[in-house]
Amino acid sequence: MMKYYLMAPGPSMIPERILLEMSKPIIHHRTKAFESVIEIVRGQLKSVFQTKNDIVVLASVGSGGMEAALVNCFSAGDKVIAVNGGKFGERWSTQARKFGLNVVDLEVPWGEAVQIEKFSEVLAKNSDAKGVLCQACETSTGVSHPVQEMGEILKKKPSTLFLVDAITALGISDIKTDLWGLDVVVTGSQKAFMLPPGLAMVSMSDKAWAFNEKAGLPRFYFDFKEELKNLQKNQTHFTPAISLLQGLKIALEMMHEETLPKLFNRHKRLAYATREAMKAIGLELFSKSPADSITAVLSPPGIDGEKLVNLLSSKYNVTIIGGQDHVKGKIFRLGHMGYCGDFDVISLVAATEMALADLGYKNQVGEAAAKATEILHKGLI
Asked: Hey, which residues does 137 pair with through a beta bridge?
């Protein structure tokens, strides 16, 4: 028998406390009992998002939240700038085109963060842009984009919204929605929030709500105005994901019991230990601006990253994920977010170095685990 470790860039592991809550008999959503769940969730979500605004919660995966953000803020023909440096930057750009937006792609090499100078240059050339789309963490590459600096620039542009996909960042890194001028922030349930996939959560600034009043794209299920109207009565417009929302209440309790500063610091420690462990056995990181949720690692010469992923699953019962598109087989991605602690990371890097050795990589088995253990024990960060 071998314990299963889910160490992918999402979904992440689910605590027993949340599983037990979600296993309770389902309640009806048009009841006082459910309204009390929404009331608690409303208040606690605001503090995780670090915003004064209500958070719209949708029965949808994160990509639905990204689509909802577009249709609630823009009209056909509006120009938007999309930071396109990975699979999910590409996805938001593609979604925007599907809805008839005029998309200017700011192409960024995979593994790199957008440069502020380049961003400012593209913004200046497209001063009529109604929005900027960017990932806080590009899940496909493990890159953290400089959304704080971008937000400071866009604060000075009242006619341009800043939309941030924080699906693999919110609740992991310290993202100050209001202070940084992030007009729309999208996240999902299956990463830092330690839940199954199925909830998208979106914050909207006053500036974004003003755009919503003029937005002309068609929407029915993803209608933020209707959702907000119901949310203010502790209800939802359509049938919600009741069990997931009950689980979210417990997840938010756990996050606040830990406290946000300790939550962010834990993720920072785990990320640093994972990166240094991989470097200790001679591996190179793929991301030049690594996020605290995912470590993307270049596969060593002669070793197919997909074979490593498969071997970790079949022999060591550890799930990680490989690369996508043109980096498939060339990188592998280790997740360390949500319900994840020191010993999960030590087990992850130990299994990774054992599997690499099985595939012929000339590493000294035990060095990666030793490095991670040293860092986590001594707090070397």
From this structure: 144
Segment 23-74, tens digit of pLDDT? 999 999 999 999 999 999 999 999 999 999 999 999 999 999 999 999 999 9
Phi, psi at residue 210, to the nearest 5°?
-65, -40
The answer to whether 161 and 207 have CB atoms below 8 angstroms apart is: yes
Judged by phi (left if over 0) then psi (alpha if -120 to 50, else beta), residue 31 lies in beta
Look up the CATH number of domain 259-378.
3.90.1150.10
Give pLDDT, residue 381. Answer: 60
* Integer Cα distance of 357 and 110 in angstroms: 27
pTM of the entire predicted model: 0.97
CATH 3.90.1150.10 domain residues, the chain: 259-378
What are the tens digits of pLDDT across the range 15-36? Answer: 999 999 999 999 999 999 999 9
Task: Tell me the CATH number for domain 16-257.
Answer: 3.40.640.10
Average pLDDT over residues 274-279: 98
